[in-house]
């Protein structure tokens, strides 16, 4: 009788062990905050946005022990599942060699995938590669096309960079009116670099009628975001920010 009970308990234990599903993250649930557990549950079901979020949690050690390897694993899963932000993030890590061996070709691959989905940020990353010959033959025409694509998508980084290149005549014929147009669009979206540059334009009358009040307005907007160049410009004018 006792022998039968022992055998029965052993069989039950084996069945329980076999039925237990492993945590694919490799981490005990006890080590995770409730928020991380919830995101992990969605990530394991293939939610690309959740996979990217989980990668961030592991990267920063938020609600779970910091683990760069786990972070990269989930970031790659998210990128492979088509999540644009993850594709841009992964591309930039490959470009800079952050947490992965530097690989410009891989970077460009992921930038292109994100750009194909309409990412303005990815277009700007690609533009830099073409402008400076990083992983591709230097090609200013392609760089300008990428900046323009980003700008037309409403991405402030694209608008600002396109405006700067019109102002300096890099890759395009110099056109100060176009420069003001694109830099203004970026400034209106709150980009401090653009706000400070627009302040310079109004201060010097570059592409616009000289206007000190407008210059100060845009310098102050940039300075309020901690932009040092704008703070310096205001100090030089003897104006508080």
Anisotropy-based shape: globular
Helix content: 55-70%
User: What profile does the largest beta sheet have?
Assistant: none
| Order of helix and strand elements from N to C terminus | HHHHHHHHHHHHH
Beta-strand residue percentage: under 5%
Mean pLDDT: 90
How many strand elements?
0
| Radius of gyration using CA atoms only | 26 Å
Structural class: mainly alpha
Q: Determine the number of helices (DSSP H or I, runs of at least 4 residues).
A: 13
Distance between the termini: 88 Å
Low-confidence stretches: 1-22
Would you kindly provide a written description of the structure presented here, covering whatever features stand out?
The chain has a domain at about 35-80. Helices cover about 70% and strands about 0% of the residues. It has 13 helices and no strands. The relative contact order is 0.05. Residues about 1-20 have low confidence and may be disordered.
Summarize the helices and strands and which ones pair or pack.
Elements: H1 2-19, H2 34-44, H3 48-60, H4 68-80, H5 84-96, H6 104-116, H7 120-132, H8 140-152, H9 156-168, H10 176-188, H11 192-204, H12 212-223, H13 228-236
Helix pairs in contact: 2-3, 3-4, 4-5, 5-6, 6-7, 7-8, 7-9, 8-9, 9-10, 10-11, 11-12, 12-13
Describe, in short, the structure shown:
The protein is mostly helical and 241 residues long. The protein is built from 13 helices and no strands. The protein has a domain at 34-81.
């Amino acid at each position: 009788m006792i022998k039968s009970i022992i055998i029965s308990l052993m069989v039950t234990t084996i069945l329980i062990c076999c039925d237990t599903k492993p945590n694919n993250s490799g981490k005990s649930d006890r080590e995770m905050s409730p928020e991380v557990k919830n995101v992990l549950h969605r990530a394991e079901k293939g939610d690309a946005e959740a996979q990217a979020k989980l990668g961030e949690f592991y990267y920063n050690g938020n609600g779970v022990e910091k683990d760069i390897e786990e972070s990269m694993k989930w970031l790659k899963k998210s990128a492979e599942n088509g999540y644009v932000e993850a594709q841009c993030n992964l591309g930039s890590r490959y470009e800079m060699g952050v947490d992965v061996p530097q690989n410009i070709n891989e970077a460009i691959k992921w930038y292109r995938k994100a750009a194909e989905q309409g990412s303005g940020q990815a277009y700007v990353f690609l533009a830099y590669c073409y402008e400076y010959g990083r992983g591709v033959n230097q090609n200013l025409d392609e760089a300008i096309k990428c900046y323009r694509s980003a700008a037309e998508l409403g991405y402030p980084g694209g608008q600002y960079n396109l405006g700067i290149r019109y102002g300096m005549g890099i890759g395009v014929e110099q056109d100060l009116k176009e420069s003001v147009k694109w830099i203004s669009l970026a400034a209106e979206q709150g980009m401090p670099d653009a706000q400070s540059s627009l302040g310079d334009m109004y201060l010097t009358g570059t592409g616009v009628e000289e206007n000190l009040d407008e210059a100060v307005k845009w310098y102050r907007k940039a300075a309020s975001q901690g932009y040092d160049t704008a703070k310096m410009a205001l100090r030089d004018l003897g104006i508080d920010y």
